What we know:
Rossmann fold; N-terminal domain of TfIIb; 6-stranded mixed sheet; 6-stranded parallel sheet; 10 helices; globular
Amino acid sequence: MQFAVIGNPIEHSLSPEIHLAFAMQVGLELTYDRILAPPDDFQTMARNFFSGSGTGLNVTAPFKHDAYEFVDEKDQASIAASAVNTIHAVGDVFLGYNTDGIGLVADLSRLRWPLKQAKILVIGAGGAAQGIVLPLLEHGAEITLANRTRSRAEALKKQFPKIDVLDLEELKQGWDIVINATAAGWQQEQLPVPSATFEDARCYDLGYQRDGRTPFIQQVEAYADETSDGLGMLVEQAAEAFQIWHDIKPQTSPVLNGLRNPKRQFIAGAVCPRCNQQDTIYVERDLLGNVTLRACSACNYVEDVDGNVSVDLL
Ligand code: ATR
């Protein structure tokens, strides 16, 4: 069985590691690759994948809308989001799903951040924001949207009349949950939002990184009640996709814990090339046992090794 994630860029996607870890957990044998597609050629790449032995495809930026147009049938979540992140080829038919929203709801439940009647501020009005509005509304949240370009927020209000719209500059304190659905952090930019907005709120970033300290989390942590990046959502949306394809729901917490806390293994006798100390060099392994980095516990020497340890340095 062949699966893959398609996007651009794609080399740092954690989806292969997550899906292969799920597969090991439930005893399934499958391959899961990364496909880099040219920005204007999703269709060809997707067709090539499925005309080979591809069964299921995860879709990430910037192709979720292309995937929406590619599939033959769509679930309610993908229609609300105008985006598909999971494709399942069943016979000659391509079925499209969007598991992002349900992944977010599952992660907020793991965090024990209640949604019923929660006052939620969503910052951003692009594809990421559109994908989470319906599931949050369905779980009883009251949503306000604020976006740098107000007209995009107003457009989402047309689709979801229940939501309120505010400008970024006029935001104040008083939210139960604040969700960052902007791309500001990717561009290493701070959100132009008054800090009081985050005061005593639970702040969630749809963006993620292994150590959890995304630019948004760093911007809000002095004010927020609690914070979380979106690594848990990534794992939960993957589990939903896994269930669609394999009809088995994998356990998510061991995989999330493994992503957050990679296994360290000290290399006996190794000498650090920077500080020259012995027995301080360790490697970290991902969930599949592949070495991902080599570092020194005594100085700040860290080296990405993309799975290959250069033995002569050890
Ligand atoms: P995605 O599919 O990831 O949501 P998108 O549709 O390009 O990507 O939307 C990006 C979102 O991040 C938008 O809400 C964008 O605001 P604009 O609609 O005004 O462009 C927001 N965004 C990006 N950079 C930002 C920044 N520096 N400050 C505030 N918002 C920003």
